[in-house]
Description:
- The structure holds two protein chains of two kinds.
- Chain A is an alpha+beta fold.
- Chain A has one domain: Roll (Ubiquitin-like (UB roll)), CATH 3.10.20.30.
- Helix content of chain A is 17%, strand content 21%.
- The longest helix of chain A has 7 residues.
- By secondary structure, chain B is α+β, with helices and mostly antiparallel strands.
- Chain B has one domain: CATH 1.10.630.10.
- In chain B, 46% of the residues lie in helices and 12% in strands.
- Chain B has 16 helices and 13 strands.
- The N terminus of chain B is likely disordered.
- Classes of the chains: A alpha+beta, B alpha+beta.
- The interface between A and B is medium-sized, with 21 and 25 residues.
Amino acid sequence: xxxxxxxxxxxxxxxxxxxxxxxxxxxxxxxxxxxxxxxxxxxxxxxxxxxxxxxxxxxxxxxxxxxxxxxxxxxxxxxxxxxxxxxxxxxxxxxxxxxxxxxxxxx
Amino acid sequence: xxxxxxxxxxxxxxxxxxxxxxxxxxxxxxxxxxxxxxxxxxxxxxxxxxxxxxxxxxxxxxxxxxxxxxxxxxxxxxxxxxxxxxxxxxxxxxxxxxxxxxxxxxxxxxxxxxxxxxxxxxxxxxxxxxxxxxxxxxxxxxxxxxxxxxxxxxxxxxxxxxxxxxxxxxxxxxxxxxxxxxxxxxxxxxxxxxxxxxxxxxxxxxxxxxxxxxxxxxxxxxxxxxxxxxxxxxxxxxxxxxxxxxxxxxxxxxxxxxxxxxxxxxxxxxxxxxxxxxxxxxxxxxxxxxxxxxxxxxxxxxxxxxxxxxxxxxxxxxxxxxxxxxxxxxxxxxxxxxxxxxxxxxxxxxxxxxxxxxxxxxxxxxxxxxxxxxxxxxxxxxxxxxxxxxxxxxxxxxxxxxxxx
Lengths: 107, 405
């Protein structure tokens, strides 16, 4: 199990235990984290599971694909250098304790 | 059947059902039959049309997400393109497999990208507000023709870059396309017999000179210049948007209004928090599943949940039944705008998942927001009439009377 910490826009944080093989988005929706909509269900087609990755964790994430890159240009809140789609982040032991800030809105 | 043979073999273990999912009786109330299909087994065989079918969530997802085994290039309707000539030139996106599909899909992904759709928001919002203001003045109207059809028709053809003349062909053309996925029943035959003028219109309007350069159609054609597609391919991609971009949202918005009219406590919830518009629309897509079914064809012998299917077989996916499978959804038959709908298959899943989903959601969201802000009550004031189509689920008319907020 890998711990993932979501920080809401109001500063409150929630910690969930994620399983290897699932995506961060799946872990979030499974635990009912508000702020991750994931309208397309993880197909990298909607940009509603946007997160801001704590900069210290950024380098540990897998590279971004073209689809994710294009979708991030259309996120509801501003795209920042640490923007990612949580459906494209797969849970590994290397991510234990990762901190992800949730945007104000997803659409 | 050999009861002592425990290994799953041939289709001897697969239940045969005599359900006709393309009959008016089925369309009138599909839910008891959906349950029968789901509960009979993970894979069933429909004797009426000689096809395999999956109606449970898990199996529908499996088929959708394995496009190399369950291909689209032999048609996503009952007709097998390996045996029968398609009724129109084959789609190079809907009816294509990787790697050919990958290239054309990338083009439409960019034409309908998140950043493109974000720029449409203001214009679509203003159109929704204007439409609802008109309806508030009317008080009594048909929520299908005056709202569910009128609103997409007021935004999509312009976004596409179509000329004003001839747009009355758009909805009838889509009706033909969606009926044509079905079996050779009366719905399909009648639709095809009457299709010539609509086909001629669409063929003509998909040519570059008839599309505004800044619209979706013009953007598709611009990809010829960059070498991503050929001159012959561009009109076919434009055609894909005209086939699937209007009637689907008509039925999606129609479904949402029908839900909000039938479940006033949900409309009240929406009025208190119009930010729920987005999920109210999404839940309507799950609940009613405007696109009810699609087919795939097996490219090899395959086993689904222990059931063996041979090569070259048609497999019918019941998206609507999967979206109400109690194995996946809590209280599946309740319309609940606060539900987490992520993972529903109303827009499909996998590589063929609706390429226009962002446009559809934007249309649904801005319309429901405008309704929630301007209307206190929606009451059904006449008998709703169902529209029968081999693929689409929706109403023909929904008389309503509203109380302005």
